[in-house]
Design a protein that fits this description.
Layout: E1 16-20, H1 24-30, H2 35-56, E2 60-67, H3 75-98, E3 101-106, H4 114-127, E4 133-141, H5 143-159, H6 170-174, E5 187-190, E6 209-212, H7 222-234
Parallel strand pairs: 1-2, 1-5, 2-4, 3-4, 5-6
Helix pairs in contact: 1-2, 2-3, 2-7, 3-4
Bound molecules: 3-methylbut-3-enyl trihydrogen diphosphate (2 copies) and magnesium ion.
GO molecular function: ditrans,polycis-undecaprenyl-diphosphate synthase [(2E,6E)-farnesyl-diphosphate specific] activity; magnesium ion binding; manganese ion binding; Z-farnesyl diphosphate synthase activity
Organism: Corynebacterium aquilae DSM 44791
Keywords: Magnesium, Metal-binding, Transferase
């Protein structure tokens, strides 16, 4: 696909985009199709988004693929989503590798299908030295679960005497998260018309710029990503300070 990224000063390109891939079910239902048909369409869309990030020089993209709350869906849909995540990783990891994408997984291990974990880990292993960009696949991810998991590991270290409670800083807590290297989210992007974060990257997004778009994810295009980045670049970020 020929991409025409907007000409934006590199200073105003987000270093980390969090993308909520939402609206697949509605997209399918509007067409009289099964919800799963919408999920299937999302595969190519995500790959286009990766290309668009590379074209713009966005170094980190986190994609919300399955939340800790998505287990509430029908057994059929959950089963489909598990198998689908596994197969997308198996199908796409070589191409992502060839593009220089480093794939990482952020999420909770218990309950997640072993075959999905296997594919996530195989993709991580294959691509671990890549430097073009990082794609974090958030599978069985929940922001509260992430903080609980971090707290448990941190508490173990306090208990064993490795860490003093008084020495715990924001940086310390950050180092116990699923991906300790993950930069703060600059642009939090959610298509599908919903204006909420749905438990995605709360710790990392405290100063993120929120951009909500109405398109459903299966219709999402690189141009929508470019539009979101242009909007982001126009925002005045103050981080609690005052405008210079
Ligand atoms: C997002 O699309 C995919 C996942 C949550 C796995 P949805 O399945 O939530 O689609 P809508 O929001 O019901 O349209
Ligand atoms: C968020 O979408 C999770 C993913 C896209 C993976 P949901 O569709 O699950 O979120 P809610 O239910 O609308 O908040
Ligand atoms: Mg949804």
């Amino acid at each position: 696909m020929k991409l025409n990224p907007p000409n934006i000063d590199p200073e105003f390109i987000p270093k980390h985009i969090a993308l909520v891939m939402d609206g697949n079910g509605r997209w399918a239902q509007e067409r009289g199709l099964k919800r799963t048909e919408g999920h299937k369409r999302g595969e190519a869309v995500l790959l286009d988004v990766v290309d668009a990030c590379i074209a713009m020089g966005v170094p980190y993209l986190s994609a919300y693929a399955f939340s800790t709350e998505n287990w509430r869906r029908s057994a059929d849909e959950v089963r489909f989503l598990m198998g689908f995540n596994r197969d997308v990783l198996a199908r796409q990891r070589q191409e992502l590798h060839e593009k220089g994408v480093r794939v990482k997984w952020a999420g909770r291990r218990p309950r997640l299908w072993r075959s999905v974990i296997r594919e996530l880990e195989a993709a991580e292993e294959l691509t671990k030295d890549n430097t073009t960009m990082t794609l974090v696949m958030c599978v069985n991810y929940g922001g509260r679960a992430e903080l609980v998991d971090a707290t448990r590991r941190l508490a173990e270290d306090v208990k064993s005497g490795k860490l003093a409670p008084g020495a715990i800083t924001e940086k310390t807590l950050g180092s116990y998260l699923y991906d300790p290297e993950m930069p703060d989210v600059d642009l939090f992007l959610r298509p599908s018309g919903e204006k909420r974060t749905s438990n995605f990257l709360p710790w990392q997004s405290v100063y993120a710029e929120m951009v909500y778009q109405d398109k459903l994810f299966p219709d999402f295009t690189p141009q929508d990503l470019f539009d979101a980045v242009e909007e982001y670049a126009r925002r005045d970020r103050r981080f609690g300070g005052v405008k210079k």
